[in-house]
Design a protein that fits this description.
Layout (H helix, E strand, L loop, with lengths): L1 E5 L4 E5 H21 L9 H12 L9 E2 H12 L4 H12 L9 E4 L18 E4 L4 H4 L9 E3 L6 E3 L8 H4 L2 E4 L4 E4 L4 H13 L5 H4 L13 E2 L3 H10 L1 E7 L1 E5 L2 E6 L6 H13 L6 E6 L9 E5 L6 H11 L3 E7 L1 E3 L5 E3 L2 H42 L1 H10 L3 H9 L3 H9 L7 H26 L1 H19 L18 H4 L4 E7 L3 E6 L16 E8 L3 E6 L3 E6 L11 E2 H4 L8 E5 L6 E6 L3 E6 L11 E2 L13 E3 L6 E6 L3 E6 L12 E2 L5 H5 L5 E7 L4 E6 L2 E5 L16 E2 L9 E5 L1
Antiparallel strand pairs: 1-2, 3-5, 4-5, 6-7, 8-9, 10-11, 11-16, 12-13, 13-15, 14-15, 17-18, 19-20, 19-21, 20-24, 22-23, 22-25, 23-28, 26-27, 26-29, 27-32, 30-31, 30-33, 31-36, 34-35, 34-37
Helix pairs in contact: 2-3, 3-4, 7-12, 7-17, 12-15, 12-16, 13-14, 14-15, 16-17
């Protein structure tokens, strides 16, 4: 598809693709160069530059009377920036907000917004404004031939292409902007630190970013909140021009309450309180009892967080809030700007300062050259004036009698045209005798100044010294101390669901029919609880309410249920099968509770088993996970807790009355599987259920093993077990007469 471009001479045909590409690229370059990105010279976007220039043209200096903001906005959009008045006014408001700009350029009177709601400023017809003292760092050299002037949008007047900034403002106030295909996010910095780094760069052109970060350790936001980004990350940010900065609120304790006194840059205190309140309502913050906003004129930020009791770990609570609210915030950094070559680029810190110094050296050289020209012009005029003094009668005679006195004066006294015109424009009162002394004094002063100017312009060293002095003077005049301290802090961690729950002792009880419930405390007798008709006690596990209960079923699969989600033991509970997807016909055979690193022993009655971590048995899946692989004919034995895998002993008792004891450490540690042989029982006998492991017990130091056979029981001390000690995987020795058929065993302290 093509489109036609018609003129009086010819008709040009181009494809729609070419036309669209060109139109889009033209628009892209306009947005990049003339709207969204700051210039490295003065650190301003076009709209900001035009606002500052328009205000200076209106005479709104720092010492002038305030003037309605609508007047400034009218001049900006009428003369220089043909866009919406609201866009221009919002840009002006941003430059007036001390909580948005590190060094505000506009001094506002009236409602210019608040940190809680920066957009709550009054309309421009109500507010008044003028420039701040700092703005002179950008404007003071404007009328001294320092910058190029370009026509405004309709060609009726000129505007500066860039302001002759005396300091690297691009780093001082920072800026954000979104162009086409690129964006910029430059954080604010401290003026004194930036000037010191710039001076170092001036004296050491080969300085690296590692050298410069000694002077500029990091951004300096207009808030006292802490910057907690590691120093290595900050240095990498300045080396690449890209990265991020993390800020954390400043807080202290006051009578048990937490008081937040400084928030990260551009964070609203009201929003932070909303975020905390939302967690409280969702019962995700049980340790907080109340919130208050006590901010006022004297304390712009004072947020009070009241803990539920004095036993709350305040550091842990604040870490959770840092991780889940805007009390800690990360800022993207992208040092993208328009360089002195007029092209956008992401620049490293050393390149920014090098380019700005190049801009500054040219600016100062142009200023000195402009002043030298003015001085030489004035000296020419003063020389002409002295000729008049020395030849006053003759000059008056020529002017009175000659029809065209100018060429006659030029010929008679060897004057330039400018000198002749100046003589003709001179008033008679300037010919008083007193004026001659003033002229000679002025000549002497100007000749001395001319000599200094020439020497400076001819010497790169003198020019550098002048730039350095002016930089240090600007730092002295406008600089201040760092506001945002850079500190090292551990990474904030939000509470897990288990952390947020109370850690009260609970006993989880499972009945023979598979009903589960949780009773408060560890001192209850699970067998004495009320059970449904035909049902009775089967398993129990003791732990804390913020832990999971791990269940092992008869197929060797493990499952997890939050203890805090289980029904109370005051009732009869609910079926496990309602919570979990157990394989058909399977039943719970073991229940365990404890920390994730708790060692447990899993085994089958076929004589195989292994030691694992309790955490390895955890599964979010309702269908659980395969934990213990059962040999053919084997069944799951009740899992056992291992107190100390290095000293504990394992006692394996077969149904035929054989006992084998060996160290638990001889078993492998696995996450899942069949395990290694514990006791040697022929697989055929296991499959026929003729012989199998009837009981396994882990014996710790000081404990005794009790073996049951019918109504008989046999108590074996550690010393009695020597007869049954052997290597893992052996048959074991026979128990005494009367214990040829064993029903079970237990550990006794």
């Amino acid at each position: 598809m093509t489109t036609e471009v018609t003129s009086q001479d010819a008709t040009e045909q181009i494809s729609l693709k070419t036309y669209a590409e060109k139109a889009y690229l033209d628009y892209s370059m306009y947005v990049i160069l003339d709207r969204a990105l700051p210039n490295i010279g003065d650190g301003l976007k076009p709209v900001q530059r035009r606002i500052v220039y328009a205000m200076s043209e209106l005479g709104l200096s720092a010492t002038a009377k305030f003037k309605k903001s609508a007047r400034t906005v009218g001049d900006v959009i009428g003369k220089f920036h043909p866009h919406g008045d609201s866009a221009a006014y919002e840009a002006m408001v941003l430059m007036a907000q001390s909580f948005s700009y590190r060094y505000p350029l506009v001094d506002g009177q009236g409602n210019w917004g608040s940190p809680d709601d920066p957009k709550s400023f009054a309309a421009m017809r109500y507010t008044e404004s003028r420039l701040t003292k700092y703005s002179q760092a950008l404007l003071s050299e404007l009328g001294q031939g320092t910058v190029d002037w370009v026509p405004n949008f309709d060609g009726t007047m000129d505007e500066p292409s860039v302001l002759p900034s005396r300091v690297p403002n691009v780093l001082l106030n920072g800026t954000t902007g979104i162009a086409v295909g690129m964006a910029t996010d430059i954080p604010p910095h401290n003026l004194r630190e930036v000037v010191n780094a710039t001076v170092h760069m001036l004296e050491n052109p080969a300085a690296t970013v590692a050298d410069l970060v000694e002077f500029i350790p990091g951004p300096d936001m207009p808030t006292e909140a802490e910057i907690i980004t590691p120093k290595a990350d900050l240095q990498k940010l300045y080396e690449t021009g890209r990265g991020s900065v993390r800020m954390r609120a400043l807080w202290s304790t006051d009578g048990g309450d937490v008081v937040v006194t400084a928030l990260p840059h551009q964070v609203s205190g009201a929003k932070v309180l909303e975020q905390i309140a939302a967690q409280m309502q969702a019962k995700k913050l049980p340790m907080v009892a109340d919130l208050r906003d006590e901010s006022d004129h004297e304390n712009p930020t004072r947020l009070v967080i009241v803990p539920r009791s004095n036993r709350i770990d305040i550091d842990a609570m604040m870490n959770h809030l840092f991780a889940t609210t805007d009390l800690e915030r990360t800022y993207r950094v992208n040092l993208n700007m328009i360089g002195i070559d007029g092209l956008p680029q992401v620049k490293s810190l050393d390149k920014i300062l090098t380019e700005w110094l190049s801009f500054r050296m040219v600016t100062v050289r142009r200023r000195l050259q402009y002043r030298l020209t003015k001085v030489e012009e004035r000296l020419e005029r003063l020389a002409a004036l002295m000729i008049v003094f020395l030849n006053v009668d003759e000059v008056i005679h020529i002017i009175r009698n000659e029809e065209y006195p100018k060429p006659v004066l030029i010929k008679r006294f060897d004057l330039t045209e400018m000198q002749a015109e100046y003589i003709l424009d001179t008033k008679l009162r300037q010919l008083a005798r007193l004026e001659e002394m003033k002229i000679r004094e002025e000549q002497e002063a100007l000749e001395k100044e001319r000599e200094n100017l020439k020497q400076t312009l001819d010497s790169a060293r003198r020019l550098k010294t002048l730039v350095k002095k002016e930089l240090l003077a600007a730092a002295e005049e406008f600089g201040d101390e760092r506001r945002s301290p850079i500190v090292s802090r551990a990474e904030a961690q939000a509470f897990s669901e288990s952390d947020l729950l109370g850690s009260d002792p609970v006993t989880v009880v499972i009945s023979e029919k598979g009903w589960i419930r949780a009773a408060k405390g560890h001192d209850i007798d699970p067998t004495a609880l009320n059970y449904k008709s035909g049902d009775s006690y089967k398993l129990s596990a003791q732990g804390k309410s913020n832990q999971n209960v791990i269940l092992l079923d008869s197929t060797g699969r493990s499952y997890a249920l939050g203890a805090h989600t289980l029904p109370s033991a005051r009732g009869q509970g609910e079926p496990v099968s309602g919570r979990l997807n157990l394989p058909s016909g399977s039943t719970p055979e073991g229940a365990l509770m404890g920390p994730d690193d708790q060692k447990v022993l899993l085994a089958s009655d076929a004589g195989y088993g292994f030691v694992g971590n309790l955490g390895d048995l955890y599964s979010k899946n309702k269908s659980g996970k395969a934990a213990l692989t059962l040999p053919k004919g084997g069944r799951v034995l009740k899992p056992l807790m291992v107190k100390d895998a290095t000293t504990d002993l394992l006692a394996a008792i077969s149904s035929e009355g054989r006992l084998l004891v060996f160290p638990v450490s001889e078993l492998p540690e696995l996450a899942r599987g069949k395990g290694n042989k514990i006791m040697n029982i022929p697989s055929a006998r296991v499959q026929a259920r003729e012989e199998y492991v009837v009981a396994l017990e882990v014996i710790s130091v000081g404990e005794q093993l009790v073996v049951f056979s019918g109504k008989r029981h046999l108590t074996l001390k550690i010393t009695d077990l020597d007869h049954y000690m052997g290597e893992r995987g052996r048959r074991g020795n026979k128990l005494p007469r009367g214990f040829q058929k064993v029903d079970g065993a237990e550990i006794k302290a």
